[in-house]
Specification:
Length: 233
């Protein structure tokens, strides 16, 4: 897990989970200046560890809309621990829970300030989404060997068959800067101040209510989280 500490460059952090209620929660107590306050978010029921996150109708989603559980990942495309999750955990999570209709998966941006390529990469994912290629670009950007320089990102756009001129214009204009800032502010309001960070729970009336899981934990830990949540619901 990668976090930012005030006055210092970010450094990796992994902590052991502790069980509170049905799901594990890993807490961090470090401030992150992520932008303006996010109105759709409320961090309520602090004693129980439950958090609430308002979902957007136009978010890119993997999995069935009728899945009983939803997981939101806050990611930084330059974070090595996000890439570890993508390589080691995501394929099994997708196979066991997303593809079987038990889990819906959403990704949001949390570019850490000390990662120079993180925000442009997030822009690239959203700009690829304008051409129906958000998830392929998302996956490509998180590959362990991907070059996140402007030239490298343009190469990914070409490899995905995008209209490169249109894609480049979108990235250069920073068209999704407000969306990225809003996502980061939402994470900050929830106390999710490192990457990767996850919120797992159920959705009612467009609001996800669940518990946080922090870090690129082993698949067995995510499996336990999802199993416990399914059993509780």
């Amino acid at each position: 897990m990668q976090r930012r500490e005030p006055g210092r460059r970010g450094r990796p952090l992994m902590r052991r989970m502790r069980w509170r209620g049905a799901l594990p929660v890993l807490a961090l107590g470090v401030a992150l200046a992520a932008g303006a306050p996010a109105d759709p978010v409320s961090a309520e029921a602090a004693d129980s560890g439950e958090l609430q996150l308002r979902l957007e109708a136009d978010e890119a989603v993997r999995g069935s809309a009728s899945a009983p559980l939803t997981m939101v990942e806050f990611t930084d495309y330059q974070c090595p621990y996000c890439r570890r999750f993508q390589a080691e955990v995501w394929p099994r999570l997708k196979r066991d829970y997303v593809d079987t209709g038990k889990l819906r998966f959403i990704v949001r941006d949390l570019p850490l300030t000390f990662h120079a390529h993180a925000k442009p990469a997030a822009e690239a994912a959203h700009c690829a989404g304008e051409q129906g290629r958000f998830w392929p670009m998302h996956d490509a950007l998180l590959a362990t060997t991907t070059d996140l320089s402007p030239r490298g990102i343009e190469g990914q756009a070409r490899a995905l068959g995008l209209d490169v001129a249109r894609f480049d214009a979108c990235v250069a204009a920073g068209r999704y800067a407000a969306v990225i800032a809003r996502n980061a502010a939402a994470a900050d309001a929830l106390g999710l101040r490192g990457t990767p960070a996850f919120l797992v729970g159920t959705v009612q009336h467009g609001t996800l209510q669940g518990r946080a899981v922090m870090g690129a934990l082993p698949y067995a830990d995510f499996d336990a989280v999802v199993r416990a949540a399914l059993a509780a619901n």
